[in-house]
Design brief:
Blueprint lengths: L1 E6 L6 H17 L3 E6 L4 H8 L3 E4 L10 H9 L8 H7 L2 H8 L10 E4 L13 E4 L10 E3 L22 E6 L4 E8 L6 E10 L6 H5 L4 E4 L6 H18 L4 E8 L8 E7 L9 H8 L4 H14 L1
Parallel strand pairs: 1-2, 1-3
Antiparallel strand pairs: 4-7, 5-6, 5-7, 8-9, 8-11, 9-10, 11-12
Helix pairs in contact: 1-9
Length: 308
């Protein structure tokens, strides 16, 4: 097939997208496809039209490649494309909309509310410890954990370095103590299925952007060592969220798990509709655990796009 791999762009996750895209392009060539690599710019529509692909492999991360914008462009141009459609992408990238959709359907997620960043310099929005994060960013971009021992100040100092300097409003959530877990979901002929549960143990600090994409900063335990009921709940919750959001191709659900609370301590944090495909990424790692090599994984995602 004639495949365009769309990557790069201008989001905060540009470099990760480029790494994902190059790996995907190499796998597509290994599979025998003709490949055009496009680093997305404002001329993307003209370049896509010129390439006339059978399918676009969307390797973009963050906005506008993960929020429904590019998906809308693909729809207008009549192009087949990988991963989730317009609605699922727009909802899943917005952490508040995701809660509004999933929590009423029985998915356990942390509480929280939107705060104006300026208000943080007057008072804490929640009892410490709590988490602040942008509403529409992935890869833990702009996440801050505010604790009694933090050096942000009491309340947060105006000159402290943090996401409040870059985002006018943030989502404040209670901090869930415990362990970081993630589950990849892959579509197949038999429907979506969860691949595995991976535990992520940062060498220091928390699982932030650097810990995700710098070799040696996080230990991946796949499959995670968990009580059977917690493992089963994480797998089911990931698939349920994938279906409820209307995701397609592949997604990845991120969790926090407080062992002191048992299964009731498992909380879904977010669903990623454009999970990374770099050498350190979790979806390829879980696919390998299930006997699916990287090129085969890429083909599975392409196949799901062709069936849409």
């Amino acid at each position: 097939m004639n495949i365009v791999v769309l990557m790069g762009g201008w989001s905060a996750e540009r470099e990760v997208s480029l790494t994902s895209g190059r790996g995907i392009a190499a796998a597509c060539r290994e599979l025998g496809h003709d490949v055009t690599e496009i680093d997305m710019g404002r001329d993307v529509a003209a370049r896509l039209a010129a390439a006339a692909p059978d399918v676009v492999f969307n390797a973009l991360h963050g906005t506008p490649g993960e929020d429904g914008s590019v998906q809308g462009l693909f729809e207008l141009m009549g192009l087949k494309y990988t991963h989730s459609g317009v609605a699922a992408s727009a909802i899943a990238i917005d952490k508040v909309l995701t809660k509004q959709l999933l929590v009423p359907q029985g998915i356990r997620m942390p509480g929280g509310h939107i705060v104006q960043s300026e208000s943080l310099f007057e008072a804490d929005p929640l009892p410490r410890p709590y988490v602040l994060k942008p509403v529409n960013e992935g890869s833990s971009v702009g996440v801050a954990i505010v604790t009694d021992a933090s050096n942000y100040g009491h309340p947060i100092a105006r000159d402290a370095v943090g996401p409040w300097a870059d985002f006018p409003e943030l989502l404040a959530e209670p901090f869930i103590a415990g362990r970081e877990l993630t589950v990849a979901v892959l579509d197949g002929a038999e429907g979506p299925h969860a691949l595995a549960v991976t535990e992520l143990k940062p060498v220091q600090g928390f699982y932030d952007y650097d810990a995700k994409y710098t070799d040696g900063l996080t230990v991946h335990i796949c499959p995670a060592e968990l009580p059977a009921d917690v493992e089963a709940s994480a797998l089911k919750m990931a698939v349920d969220a994938h279906v409820m959001l209307g995701c397609r191709g592949a997604s990845r659900a991120d969790f926090r798990y407080d062992p002191a609370l048992g299964e009731a301590g498992l909380y879904l944090l977010e669903v990623n509709t454009q999970p990374g495909m770099t050498p350190l990424s979790l979806v390829p790692e879980q696919a390998r655990h299930r006997g699916i090599g990287y090129p085969a994984l890429v083909q599975r995602i392409i196949d799901a796009a062709l069936l849409a």
